[in-house]
Design a protein that fits this description.
17 strands, 9-stranded mixed beta sheet, 23% strand, TIM Barrel, 469 residues, Urease, subunit C, domain 1, alpha/beta, homodimer, 42% helix
Chain lengths: 469, 469
């Protein structure tokens, strides 16, 4: 019979052997990268939050997510990204933007949406927006979005080929809408012209670049007539493409629809068969109860734009009611000219706070809910839930690290509460899309920020000069 | 007769001589510091915004404000703070805070104010709040406020001597309220006890340290009875001290007042003579029209707390109506446990946006208005307008520099719009109070941030452990 101490000793040796085994013998699966975090938020259906977690990445995809010890015991990474003081989560999804409008931010504020649009923005756009404007403005937007932790965005603007080129170069993921609009625009003479160009754009970029999804962007029901809206849906269906559109944004739009069609915006769209294909409806401030059911039945993804809706006084979207009815709701910044930045953290925070005070119910849209809307539910709303929005094996590796050591994050009782009610863009340190590092230690790797700042200021100086009396 | 070229030559020489004169011969007034900016916002009664401006500082005071060329022609600074890419403005004034509650941020969220207060905050405070808690929590709050550009704050918490010591050490300016409350609190056994201690505190700190103003902080009309409120006002009058109080914050409070006194909160306070001395009323969400007139007549300063009011679903304060009636309205963060940070930029932004959407009027509370509320009007609301809140000769030199070169500020058409709708705490690079540099190039000079982080995390770990089942 062995003495107790001998048995303990053997047992201890066995433990050490096993530990060595897991640390060395089995860490034989090479991966490109392991990203660690004090906490890893998967945003998967189990809402897993893993303390001292890690994500293994290869071929642009998530290979495994789990406790860092387990991941590092199994996988041998070429690059290991430390997670000390950091939280890892899926990259944020900006469901509605007009990226190049960064170049017009602050040009006109504190105005109604129609005065702002018709007297300032549309005229300035026709005058100044050309491919060079779109290139610089989109680069500036991508710089801002990457530095703030956004990895995917839905864009709607002019010269979409230029937008696609910038996205391709900077490494983000995007749905890019070619604008269809019944007025002279920066890239078309008429509705027919803009639709023809949109069809060409979608054809050109479909299945061309995995991070880019070309879609159609009919502007709204007050800038296109029914025939033009139907023609756009028909073209989208022929190409199996999604549509992104402004819908039920303001009382003005709903009144316009009532007067012209005798029904609200959403009902009008339904009546013309507009929802017979994937639709991303931005704003959606004024659906009535019947229309909320139409959205749910039609599988329409909605994008909540709280800052823009507040700034233009468009109204307060019935977000809890839509989600309750089964509508997937994402979050967007809208263009920087009505926001005036592209900060998704602010949208989450503001979006939650606005619903609480509006319903006088502090429990509404809790932090965890709004964080889902900015990640996996946002991916559902824009039709990319199989690709991005959560950290699960097989999905694209679109993720970020957020530093939690600056004053406002100290101390940390609840990671999710901090992400929604505290985190700022500047806390994001690392941004990875499709397994590729776009920002490391707050340094952007795919964009020349000095050059963009110079180009943007030069272009803005020209605009300022021409607009001054 | 001189030839034209000779005359031109003489004239040119004269110009050069004069320029030399202004640059060298007259720059003979020594000052401690000149702070420059691409733009200097004075926030004075003329709303002056000076392009390529500068502020000369000596003996803790503003000596002169003007174009940088003029200032540097006249004053010889010991230290010259470059303003390239930066905007200079008065330091922000946080009109209502419970600083040490930074240590409880995120401990309970998405709850009604009374559930939050009675079931989580009050019990946690009685259990954990001691002088050490207050020291660390206030240090953490001062770190966060300085890094975000706040130079003055109105605090209301327990162990006010400790708060005063921290403020004294870190160099900020503060009105510090000793809490008076009719329940067992972290520093008193009863209302009488808390009032007696408050009187001692105010006596101890009056005229002791120029940056510190000791005041009385009766908690609210639902935590003190009429006799206790009257006794507090009497004590404040005897010492010529200001009172800071929560007032008309929530429907609950107004209903309570209606039931108990047959009248709304503000009317009840007026009926007991409470406004016969300087009063800072925080929140003020539910005054009726008559009560707004009472506030204006009583010279009551109001502090708007938009994030907290939204998060606790307290309601939307009638800010435009109060300002229209002549009430000075400042802005505050409230405690970090109901916010969950101390970010005054967010308060400005959110405060403006909330009023716009509430009234469905995008012109309401324009950017320039809300910036005044966070500076000079905030100073008026708390009775410090002669001391701080604008950059004018003779006032204390409380000012900040904000960097405008990061993505979200590019390009800049309108400085004030950017400050309100874009700027984040992390853009603040320089903070000066009473002419003394508290933060230079984002490095805090008067607080040991590593030590504070360590102390706060250690204390939070203890709290987390004791609270876990």
């Amino acid at each position: 019979m062995m003495s107790i101490s001998k048995a303990m000793c053997r047992s201890r040796l066995l433990q050490i052997f096993l530990a060595m085994g897991s640390a060395f013998a089995f860490a034989d699966t090479p991966v490109e990268m392991v990203v660690e975090g004090d906490y890893v938020l998967t945003m998967d259906s189990d809402h897993r939050v893993i303390a001292n977690g890690a994500v293994a990445i290869s071929d642009g995809k998530v290979v495994a997510v789990g406790p860092a010890d387990d991941i590092l015991a199994k996988y041998q990474p070429r690059e290991r990204v430390s997670g000390k003081g950091k939280v890892v989560l899926p990259g944020l999804i900006n469901g509605h933007a007009h990226s190049a409008m960064t170049l017009l931010r602050g040009i006109a504020d504190d105005l109604s949406i129609y005065e702002w649009l018709n007297e300032y923005i549309f005229p300035a756009e026709v005058r100044f927006v050309d491919p060079e404007f779109v290139r610089i403005g989109t680069q500036l937007a991508c710089w801002e979005m990457i530095r703030g932790g956004t990895t995917t965005f839905v864009d709607m603007y002019y010269h979409p080929d230029v937008i696609a080129e910038v996205v391709q170069e900077c490494g983000m993921r995007a749905l890019i809408s070619a604008t269809v609009i019944d007025q002279k625009s920066p890239d078309a003479e008429s509705a027919d012209d803009s639709l023809a160009k949109a069809i060409e754009f979608v054809r050109r970029w479909q299945n061309k670049a995995p991070r880019i999804t070309p879609i159609f962007g009919p502007h709204a029901n007050y800038t296109l007539n029914v025939e033009q809206l139907k023609a756009t849906r028909k073209a989208a269906q022929a190409l199996n493409a999604t549509i992104s559109i402004h819908m039920a944004e303001s009382p003005y739009e709903v009144e316009y629809s009532q007067e012209k069609y005798g029904t609200g915006s959403v009902s009008m769209f339904e009546s013309i068969g507009f929802f017979e294909g994937p639709t991303i409806a931005a704003h959606m401030v004024w659906p009535n109860d019947d229309e909320i059911r139409i959205l749910a039945a039609g599988n329409v993804g909605v994008v909540y734009n709280p800052t823009s809706n507040m700034k233009t006084a468009a109204g307060i979207a019935p977000i809890p009611e839509m989600r309750e009815a089964g509508v997937a709701v994402g979050i967007g910044t809208d263009g920087a000219a009505s926001n005036n930045d592209l900060d998704m953290w602010e949208e989450m925070r503001l979006g939650a706070l606005l619903q609480k005070v509006n319903a006088m119910d502090p429990e509404l849209l809790a932090a965890a809910e709004v964080l889902r809307m900015a990640t996996i539910e946002g991916a559902q709303a824009i039709g990319l839930a199989d690709v991005t929005g959560s950290l699960e094996p097989g999905k694209q590796a679109d993720l970020i690290q957020v530093d939690f050591t600056d004053a406002h994050h100290v101390p940390t009782y609840d990671v999710i509460s901090h992400l929604v009610y505290v985190t700022d863009e500047q806390d994001v340190t690392t941004v990875i899309v499709e397994g590729k590092m776009l920002m490391r230690d707050r340094v952007l790797l795919t964009l020349d920020t000095e050059q963009i700042r110079h180009d943007a200021e030069t272009l803005a100086a020209k605009i300022r000069k021409e607009l001054s009396p």
